[in-house]
């Protein structure tokens, strides 16, 4: 049996204590409609349905952060616990650098929810530059920022394509500012491989299927070369823009890819590297940070 | 103080016994059997090397009897009607036969191969009998008292040891702990039809006294929503004159009692009204040959088979 690792969530994660679904269902009508009522009077949530996941993240964002978020149909529905773990890790990284001035960050591929930028701005008043290439996602992201009155803190930039990360923006935009960090949730899977979402589990019988329904469009979930290729692009560009961005970070979905990225960083002589794990529910993700300056 | 004679015992056993001179003198205060004085260094086992033994005490103190506070109200523990020996008090035949079964048996087709819910099943005795006697498809029992639900589950456990897994009974039985009255009325919006028959026997008084008119109305509406089209609610409500003696159970219950407006004689009208929506009421019967206190009419409320176009 795979044990739940939710007690290894970041200590400041507000979802460490599980939400009371019964009270949430009483308070929010849209959420109520995707819940089930047990005979005992308790409300339960079926994570295997996309509609449920969407309403769940929406209601948690509303209840815990007073954020009104909408997701483009068919687009990736983020899970709040994981996104929070990432933001909290960034807070820890930045804290170590004793940043006193305004914190500015870049959200690479913000998706239709723009959730990282929304959380960063709402929770910490960080200024965020959200980069996104898919037109439908850009439209929804801008709506989400506007609806939550965070236009002053978040700018959604329309990336022409996915061939570069920062290049188009830094080359064309009139922006002299420096950024403290960048964050990224890359497309995990490799569209070139035979079975992109198959997973390379060594023991498929003992590894149970995930608890929740898969969400997200093909281009959000996969790209040529998968997350390794994507993060490699970020690394290549980081050498060019190391004066503009202090800490580069990215999430990784597959444990086996972590050492691959570490090797790439080592080959390029990048010394200041940090890794971490994000635990929530039955899922673990990894993240890597690198910098051309001391982490302190 | 008048002692309730709940078990129909002869009067001489219901009087409290008073100490008399006939009782033994000081010796009565000693333990009846000869227990070596563990704390006496001379008689205790030599292996006890602990030198921090407390000084010898009188036998009674050594027993560390838990100080039982005099109960203000001995009914305090049963404010939900969750009597521990409920099925020992109703008048039964020798081989455990609840009289209500006779009334239910007049229409066995109501239960045969059906999915049942028993609200306030207590220790499950009656639920088990019904499931067995009428060959139900499934029966779920719900009770607000966790220890009673445990008793019911243990009863199923021992029945399973007597019945091989191939048989339907008792594997089609399940007991759950919970409050039938929901935290909020809005949760009724997501309630779904899932039962053919709902049994609500001698429970309405307790819901009424603990959760007021609002709670009882919600419970009635929930019963309707949980029934499939054509489904039946079998209701055995207590009459209002039996509520009075229970209002001393707690301050809250006393307040609730005073606030009641929907009296039991109005239940039928309410259940048939659009607020709940049952189509018909039929009197199933009244148990015979039992103490008048338990002679409660058993009613059947039926949910319309076909939905109205409205």
From TrEMBL, chain A:
<dbReference type="InterPro" id="IPR017182">
    <property type="entry name" value="METTL16/PsiM"/>
</dbReference>
<protein>
    <recommendedName>
        <fullName>U6 snRNA m(6)A methyltransferase</fullName>
        <ecNumber>2.1.1.346</ecNumber>
    </recommendedName>
</protein>
<feature type="region of interest" description="Disordered">
    <location>
        <begin position="195"/>
        <end position="218"/>
    </location>
</feature>
<dbReference type="GO" id="GO:0005634">
    <property type="term" value="C:nucleus"/>
</dbReference>
<dbReference type="GO" id="GO:0120048">
    <property type="term" value="F:U6 snRNA (adenine-(43)-N(6))-methyltransferase activity"/>
</dbReference>
<feature type="binding site">
    <location>
        <position position="83"/>
    </location>
    <ligand>
        <name>S-adenosyl-L-methionine</name>
    </ligand>
</feature>
<keyword id="KW-0489">Methyltransferase</keyword>
<feature type="binding site">
    <location>
        <position position="185"/>
    </location>
    <ligand>
        <name>S-adenosyl-L-methionine</name>
    </ligand>
</feature>
<dbReference type="Pfam" id="PF05971">
    <property type="entry name" value="Methyltransf_10"/>
</dbReference>
<feature type="binding site">
    <location>
        <position position="132"/>
    </location>
    <ligand>
        <name>S-adenosyl-L-methionine</name>
    </ligand>
</feature>
<dbReference type="InterPro" id="IPR029063">
    <property type="entry name" value="SAM-dependent_MTases_sf"/>
</dbReference>
<dbReference type="InterPro" id="IPR010286">
    <property type="entry name" value="METTL16/RlmF"/>
</dbReference>
<feature type="binding site">
    <location>
        <position position="109"/>
    </location>
    <ligand>
        <name>S-adenosyl-L-methionine</name>
    </ligand>
</feature>
<comment type="similarity">
    <text>Belongs to the methyltransferase superfamily. METTL16/RlmF family.</text>
</comment>
<keyword id="KW-0949">S-adenosyl-L-methionine</keyword>
<keyword id="KW-0808">Transferase</keyword>
<dbReference type="GO" id="GO:0070475">
    <property type="term" value="P:rRNA base methylation"/>
</dbReference>
Automatic annotation (TrEMBL), chain B:
<feature type="domain" description="Bin3-type SAM">
    <location>
        <begin position="98"/>
        <end position="306"/>
    </location>
</feature>
<dbReference type="Pfam" id="PF06859">
    <property type="entry name" value="Bin3"/>
</dbReference>
<dbReference type="InterPro" id="IPR029063">
    <property type="entry name" value="SAM-dependent_MTases_sf"/>
</dbReference>
<feature type="compositionally biased region" description="Polar residues">
    <location>
        <begin position="43"/>
        <end position="52"/>
    </location>
</feature>
<dbReference type="GO" id="GO:0017070">
    <property type="term" value="F:U6 snRNA binding"/>
</dbReference>
<feature type="region of interest" description="Disordered">
    <location>
        <begin position="1"/>
        <end position="76"/>
    </location>
</feature>
<dbReference type="GO" id="GO:0008173">
    <property type="term" value="F:RNA methyltransferase activity"/>
</dbReference>
<feature type="compositionally biased region" description="Basic and acidic residues">
    <location>
        <begin position="13"/>
        <end position="22"/>
    </location>
</feature>
<protein>
    <recommendedName>
        <fullName>RNA methyltransferase</fullName>
        <ecNumber>2.1.1.-</ecNumber>
    </recommendedName>
</protein>
<keyword id="KW-0949">S-adenosyl-L-methionine</keyword>
<comment type="similarity">
    <text>Belongs to the methyltransferase superfamily.</text>
</comment>
<dbReference type="InterPro" id="IPR010675">
    <property type="entry name" value="Bin3_C"/>
</dbReference>
<dbReference type="InterPro" id="IPR039772">
    <property type="entry name" value="Bin3-like"/>
</dbReference>
<dbReference type="GO" id="GO:0008171">
    <property type="term" value="F:O-methyltransferase activity"/>
</dbReference>
<keyword id="KW-0489">Methyltransferase</keyword>
<dbReference type="GO" id="GO:0005634">
    <property type="term" value="C:nucleus"/>
</dbReference>
<dbReference type="InterPro" id="IPR024160">
    <property type="entry name" value="BIN3_SAM-bd_dom"/>
</dbReference>
<dbReference type="GO" id="GO:0106349">
    <property type="term" value="P:snRNA methylation"/>
</dbReference>
<feature type="compositionally biased region" description="Basic and acidic residues">
    <location>
        <begin position="65"/>
        <end position="74"/>
    </location>
</feature>
<keyword id="KW-0808">Transferase</keyword>
